[in-house]
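forwarding from the other thread:

> can someone predict this with XIL?

sure thing
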Amino acid sequence: MSDKKDRRGRQVGLRSGPRLALVLGTAATLAVGATMVFAPTASAGTTLGASAAEKGRYFGTAVAANKLSDSTYVGILNREFNSVTAENEMKWDATEPSQGNFSYANADRIVNHARSNGQQVRGHALAWHSQQPGWAQNMSGTALRNAMLNHVTQVATYYRGKIVAWDVVNEAFADGGGGNRRDSNLQRTGNDWIEAAFRAARAADPGAKLCYNDYNTDGQNAKSNAVYAMVQDFKARGVPIDCVGFQSHFNAQSPVPSDYQANLQRFANLGVDVQITELDIEGSGTTQANNFARVVQACLAITRCTGITVWGIRDTDSWRASGTPLLFDGSGNKKAAYTSTLNALNSGGNPITTPPTQPTTNPPTTPPTTTPPPTTTPPPGGAGCSATLSNNAWNGGYVTTIRVTAGSSGTNGWTIGVTLPSGSTITNAWNTNRSGNTGSVQFSNVAYNGRLTAGQVTEFGFQGTGNAPSGTPTCAAS
Ligand code: XIL
């Protein structure tokens, strides 16, 4: 992999030359499957952020501080998006231009803008081989390790409480078939630099979700397998990681992979959130529109896919503007890709309450240790429900997914009982309210997944240490 220079002459860790220069003339090369039709639902939102929020997710964009004085840009930003990522302003070169001197003015402009408009903020990125300040580029060994850890600590502390999720480490794996770490000055400080960065970030901002973020990991391949193995290992050893970001920069040479959803799902099955962090898809017209819709559909089909960020607002704002890869044209008009994205958000499979006849998730690629389907049927007539559990277990820990099926009367709410084996402790849970973490544990619905129609299914999950539970959970409906 030879890193390339971006248009400002800095090293960026993204692919080889022709790829970025590519302009999609042959839309057919990106065509995948049949044209998709998304009929908006009655409760459809009319902006990307509102529609994503209806599905319990965010829809964000990368923001450049120097565009916050552009009224067209800000108008779209405030209308459409409920999450922002600083495109460059939180990177190492921007926040610590000389060692020990921190500079947050531009990042603060973005954070303050977001907060005053009710938008959440993703932090990007604490430790990365690219866009390092010159002084760090020239460092090595213990001095660099300590400088990196100090940087992580200082920046995460400064923004403590304001960042929903941090890209703690960005692009640490190499492209190609080896599944190796990328060579970099950080990597040469020792293979444990990634976990050291995550531990420092957790200590500095315990409330932020901590993500690993990369590109060319969107489908299953040697690189994503290597990231998967790292996340699995971190989970097993208690290294604090909460999410994996999939940059999702697509074009003809790197199209939306056919196993995109399955790949994101297998990461989610490890007990981390997944997020689409830098989405852009070169192209135009219907082909581009369908590709955006596919990405949105994949995220909506995965319970733990918590949101999507596009890497800029108008095509002309893009770091690869010649590929017209975004949702608004240079004048700020909505493109076909905008409409398909909005429609997909409004109509896409809602993973939280998926009708059983239309499963929208592919089975995990690593078969979980599953229990058989329920042998009990919901009580007839009453407001019953049933539940099954499946586990993804490793030595010392596990992730359990519980599938709740409403009985013939549907539910207004539900409560699930699970008995944990002795020595087993739940460390976190999602899409549920939990009481207790050892022995007999009760889970109840949260606001958005209690109301189920007859036969409808919803899923929630939890993670624990020790042995995974087994058997059939109890289910009581209200
Ligand atoms: C890009 C920015 O969009 C450009 O403005 C900058 O010149 C180079 O970096 N992967 C990442 C992002 O994680 O930070 C990169 O952003 C795009 C690739």
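The pocket of XIL is lined by residues 6, 8, 10, 12, 14, 87-88, 170, 247, 278, 319 (CB under 6 Å). thats all i got for now
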